[in-house]
């Protein structure tokens, strides 16, 4: 009887468990996630920021992105931890929280073959971070390699956010 109860409890735990990344506030980014992300934000101005915990410029830029998100609520902000060095979710979440980005749509690369994920996003992308994609409501994409100037983001937002 004890064995049956133990088996039932283990099965129930496995049925209700979610991946650690998802339950912690980071969505797992694997094959097909780019298409899902684009569909979820279709028709809305969207800023997608690729960053990493080990990226020095990202550490400086994240708080600026948090300020941009606060000042531009009509722009969807998506962050994707695309660090080449695998890391635990907690440091990434702490950095996002400290930068005021907890409410953003936050993802983390979870496929061990990161090149495949980058190719799905942009076949020309070699993996350099930070990298920002500005996606207009019509689907047009502007790519910014390296640090994105806040003034550039504000200018893009003003151009693509419908007037009230």
From TrEMBL:
Domain Thioredoxin stretches: 6-162
InterPro entries assigned: Thioredoxin-like_sf (IPR036249), Thioredoxin_CS (IPR017937), Thioredoxin_domain (IPR013766)
Residues annotated as signal peptide: 1-20
Record key words, sorted: Redox-active center, Signal
Gene3D superfamilies registered for this protein in UniProt: Glutaredoxin
Protein name: TlpA family protein disulfide reductase
Organism expressing this protein natively: Rhodopseudomonas telluris
């Amino acid at each position: 009887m004890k064995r049956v109860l133990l088996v039932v409890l283990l099965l129930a735990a496995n049925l209700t468990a979610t991946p650690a990344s998802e339950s912690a506030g980071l969505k797992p980014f694997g094959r097909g996630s780019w298409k899902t992300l684009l569909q979820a934000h279709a028709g809305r101005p969207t800023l997608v920021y690729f960053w990493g915990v080990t990226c020095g410029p990202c550490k400086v830029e994240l708080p600026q992105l948090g300020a941009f998100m606060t000042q531009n609520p009509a722009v969807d902000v998506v962050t994707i931890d695309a660090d080449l060095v695998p890391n635990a979710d907690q440091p990434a979440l702490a950095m996002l929280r400290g930068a005021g980005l907890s409410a953003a749509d936050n993802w983390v690369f979870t496929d061990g073959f990161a090149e495949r994920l980058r190719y799905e996003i942009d076949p020309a992308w070699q993996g350099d971070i930070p990298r920002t994609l500005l996606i207009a409501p019509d689907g047009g994409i502007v790519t910014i390699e390296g640090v994105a100037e806040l003034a550039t983001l504000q200018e893009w937002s003003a151009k693509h956010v419908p007037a009230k």
